UniProtKB/TrEMBL annotation:
InterPro entries linked to this entry: SWEET, SWEET_rpt
Residues passing through the membrane, by range: 6-23, 69-90, 97-117, 160-180, 186-206
GO molecular function, one term: sugar transmembrane transporter activity
Protein name: Sugar transporter SWEET
Source lineage: Eukaryota, Metazoa, Chordata, Craniata, Vertebrata
Pfam families membership: MtN3_slv (PF03083)
Subunit structure: Interacts with TRPV2; the interaction probably occurs intracellularly and depends on TRPV2 N-glycosylation.
Protein location: Cell membrane; Golgi apparatus membrane
CC annotations in GO: Golgi membrane; plasma membrane
Topology term for the membrane: Multi-pass membrane protein
Aminoacyl-tRNA synthetase keyword on record: no
Alphabetized UniProt keyword annotations: Cell membrane, Golgi apparatus, Membrane, Repeat, Sugar transport, Transmembrane, Transmembrane helix, Transport
Family: Belongs to the SWEET sugar transporter family.
Function: Mediates sugar transport across membranes.
Length: 221
């Protein structure tokens, strides 16, 4: 195998490994819900939006014939769907959660109907679907900025996950390189905000270490 082929295989493997590692951080929430038999402070919306994101990229990967995208997002969609089902099982107010799920899935189905039925050819469909996936992924990476502002305000990183931060950084970096290698801006560009926000989180962990969090909490009590 040529050096270029080996590099592509390693990069593809890194994308799969790091992204599935990022998705698997939700297993701690899954374990907490099963043990406590309630959802407590577990947030539902990230599960739902990530599932929609996975299904969108799965469609893009299928249309492009990219098995790295297909494998990662097929497994990711199954994991997020599992998280959603467990959340629904233990959530006391199921109606609001079901309405959110139905609304977002309805938008997703309308989008798929547009891309597959109304867009005239495969090339145009690939470009428009790639643009949609890119915008959706960028919005997901930028959505936690409000939480980062609260971290700075409270000087506490308790609401942040260090393992998720590292997993996001590695996954975003590998997908950026993968997109650059394929000359696919729809893969490369939306992962750049993931790298940026991960470095911001790492800076916050350095600025407000866990020991300081505990001291801050003691002072508040």
């Amino acid at each position: 195998m040529e050096a270029g082929g080996v590099a592509d295989s390693l990069l593809s493997g890194a994308c799969v490994l790091f992204t599935l590692g990022m998705f698997s951080t939700g297993l701690s929430d899954l374990r907490h819900m099963r043990i406590a038999r309630r959802v407590d402070n577990v947030q539902f919306l990230p599960f739902l939006t990530t599932d929609v994101n996975n299904l969108s990229w799965l469609s893009y990967g299928t249309l492009k014939g990219d098995w790295t995208l297909i494998v990662v997002n097929a497994v990711g969609a199954m994991l997020q769907s599992l998280y959603i089902l467990v959340y629904l099982h233990y959530c006391p107010r199921k109606q609001a959660v079901l309405l959110q799920t139905a609304a977002l899935l309805g938008v997703l189905l309308l989008g798929f109907g547009y891309f597959w039925l109304l867009v005239p050819n495969t090339e145009a469909r690939l470009q428009q679907l790639g643009l949609f996936c890119s915008v959706f992924t960028i919005s997901m990476y930028l959505s936690p900025l409000a939480d980062l502002a609260k971290v700075i305000q409270t000087k506490s990183t308790q609401r942040l996950s260090f393992s998720l931060t590292i997993a996001t950084l590695l996954a975003s970096a590998s997908w950026t390189l993968y997109g650059f290698r394929l000359r696919d801006p729809y893969i490369m560009v939306p992962n750049l905000p993931g790298i940026l926000t991960s470095f911001i989180r790492l800076w916050l962990f350095w600025k407000y270490p866990q020991a300081q969090d505990r001291n801050y909490q003691l002072l508040q009590t």
